[in-house]
């Protein structure tokens, strides 16, 4: 990119923090935006943010996505080359209990970022989606051209809507847009509501862990630094008019595509727990539970499209990635 300036929503979040760190290291000027909401302990978000604010070329604005006109004003003032929209109300299970927060953040908030991009078009608009959009699909690995019309959670439904909303803006206003679908991201500074954090905390405290579907689950666990590498490479891969192959999700009517970012190999939940046991030196007491509403049995990313676009991404071994998380967690827990 000739001008390395990026606007990141959700910059104090798990993925946003890692992406901002990497882009600052690579010489980008970064403006972060985050609401620092209490969905999980704000102290974790504040700690991430303090690390970013100690660095040059990082600017920050606190605010809510859904506040009308705020993002349009900030983006018009900052004039980024790339916008990366990561902020959202996350969590499959929480969407059952608090669906309105998903409407506010994921639908109204995303509309605000699209309006901001319409008013001050970036060279590339990048927005987060999720593997949850594949919903009730049973054919795996999941490919970007597979239908995503049967969501199993309201969270997934809002993300399908985000993809449709972004496509319409890409078509109407010629905004080059890439939606990336994440697959079970984990690593240091991860969210407390995710399995790696919950399992590690319980195991170190000598408490039982809840293992859903009696452990018969698979996830395409993706180490956060591998994911960030994919986002960074994709930032310079602007959707055009020529597909790279039959697996390309490039729209026939807009500069728009969806891209999976996953490790490309599912891991049994039991193997993931064993990796935590090895890293902690403790044995987990498993509380076997039925499948939760809205959850899926397995996820597995087809990685052919992203590899065709940006080359093969690093794939951190699950044991190495889990050890990095556990080492970070011990340090965080000792504070």
Q: Describe it for me?
A:
The chain has one domain: NAD(P)-binding Rossmann-like Domain (Rossmann fold). 40% of the residues lie in helices and 16% in strands. It has helices at residues 14-25, 42-53, 70-78, 94-97, 99-119, 154-173, 195-204, 224-235, 269-280, 304-310, 318-333; strands at residues 5-9, 29-34, 58-62, 82-85, 124-130, 177-182, 185-186, 209-211, 218-219, 222-223, 256-261, 267-268, 286-288. Strands 3-2-1-4-5-6-11 form a 7-stranded parallel sheet, with helices on both faces. The protein has a two-stranded parallel sheet with strand order 7-10. Strands 8-13 form a two-stranded parallel sheet. α3 (70-78) runs parallel beside α5 (99-119), α7 (195-204) crosses α9 (269-280) and α9 (269-280) packs across α11 (318-333). The longest helix is centred in the N-terminal third of the chain and has 21 residues, at 99-119. The radius of gyration is 19 Å and the shape is globular. It starts with a strand and ends with a helix. 46% of the residues are buried.
């Amino acid at each position: 990119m000739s001008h390395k300036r990026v606007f990141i929503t959700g910059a104090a979040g798990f993925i946003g923090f890692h992406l901002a760190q990497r882009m600052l290291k690579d010489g980008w000027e970064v403006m972060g935006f985050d609401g620092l909401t209490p969905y999980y302990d704000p102290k974790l978000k504040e700690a991430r943010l303090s690390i970013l604010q100690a660095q040059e070329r990082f600017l920050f604005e606190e605010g809510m996505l859904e506040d009308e006109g705020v993002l349009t004003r900030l983006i018009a003032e900052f004039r980024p080359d790339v916008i990366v929209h990561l902020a959202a109300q996350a969590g499959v299970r929480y969407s059952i209990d608090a669906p309105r927060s998903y409407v506010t953040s994921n639908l109204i908030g995303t509309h605000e970022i699209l309006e901001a991009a319409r008013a001050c078009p970036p060279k590339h608009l990048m927005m987060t989606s999720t593997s949850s959009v594949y919903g009730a699909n049973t054919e795996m690995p999941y490919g970007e051209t597979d239908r995503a019309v049967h969501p199993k959670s309201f969270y997934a439904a809002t993300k399908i809507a985000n993809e449709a909303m972004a496509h319409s803006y890409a078509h109407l206003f010629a905004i080059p847009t890439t939606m990336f679908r994440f697959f079970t991201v984990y690593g240091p500074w991860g969210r407390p509501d995710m399995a790696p954090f919950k399992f590690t905390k319980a195991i170190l405290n000598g408490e039982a862990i809840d293992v859903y579907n009696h452990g018969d689950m698979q996830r395409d666990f993706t180490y956060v630094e591998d994911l960030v590498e994919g986002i960074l490479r994709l930032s310079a891969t602007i959707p055009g008019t020529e597909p790279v192959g039959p697996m390309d999700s490039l729209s026939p009517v807009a500069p728009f595509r969806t891209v999976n970012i996953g490790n490309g190999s599912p891991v049994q939940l039991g193997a993931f727990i064993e990796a935590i046991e090895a890293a902690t030196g403790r044995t987990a007491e498993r509380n076997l539970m039925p499948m939760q509403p809205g959850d899926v049995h397995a996820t597995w990313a087809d990685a052919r499209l992203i590899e065709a676009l940006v080359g093969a991404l690093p794939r951190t071994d699950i044991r190495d990635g889990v050890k990095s998380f556990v080492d970070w967690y011990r340090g965080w827990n000792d504070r």
